[in-house]
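Page 42, continued from yesterday. The earlier attempt failed because a stray header line got pasted into the input along with the sequence. Redoing it now with the clean sequence only.
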Amino acid sequence: MTTALDRTRTKRPRHHAIKGSRPGFLVYGLLLAWFLGSSYPLWWSFVAGSSTNSVLTLPYPPLLPGGQFWQNASEVFATIDFWKALGNSIIVSSAITVSVLFFSTLAGYTFAKLKFRGRNGLMLFVVLTLAIPTQLGIIPLFILMKQFGWTGSLGAIIVPTLVTAFGVFFMRQYLVDVIPDELIEAARVDGASSIGTFWYVGLPAARPAMAVLGLFTFMTAWTDYLWPLIVAGSNPTLQVALSQLQSARYVNYTVVLAGAVLATIPLLLLFIVAGRQLVSGIMAGAVKG
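This time it went through. Structure tokens are written below.
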């Protein structure tokens, strides 16, 4: 004779019997199509950069590169001071990335875990600044840099972007839930100061988000063109130096594309080197227990 308990057990869904299914061919096909569509512009730039200008007049673009990439690259090196511009870009992007990571994490931790008067209003003000176009502040910012005597130096490029509103908002949204309040209280009971609590509790918990923010901050600083063009002067970054490959009379687009490929190589190396650490950091922050 079946009891009510047995009938309840028979009606209960067996979640343990459900097994995770692997992605099918449709998922892999969509990922492959997305990868090919995203990488094709870079590949075509390499194909055109290793050919002559005649390749640009063909009815169908070629799929295989030519044999003149190093010849076009040597013309890039002869036209601009490539290595100086590369060093400037590395200095600027690295300094901006380190500064944004530190100050954004510190401010995000403060807004997320420290209670003080006006916290929500200040955070709202930070978020509202994201709606202001960057171009509106270029003229007053240039006047300020000129008054400081910084125009023509790398400091004029670095200082205005030492911290970003997006970085503060991103780190605040991440840290507000990932750090339990009990952990902060325990650190204070053990005698840790506010800075010590941030250093030993906040920073380790923020590493996955810092990896993501750092990668995209470096990429944004590396590809920035407008502000370095205005204020760099005789110390151009790589993107500004590449614009010197174009003249008013004649533009050899294969040389320009070869320079663009050379400027993209450091970013590709960064993604290759930091890609595994980035994914592992994200998974470490997502898996708990």
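Notes: The CA atoms of residues 29 and 35 lie 10 Å apart.
Reminder to self: strip header lines before submitting.
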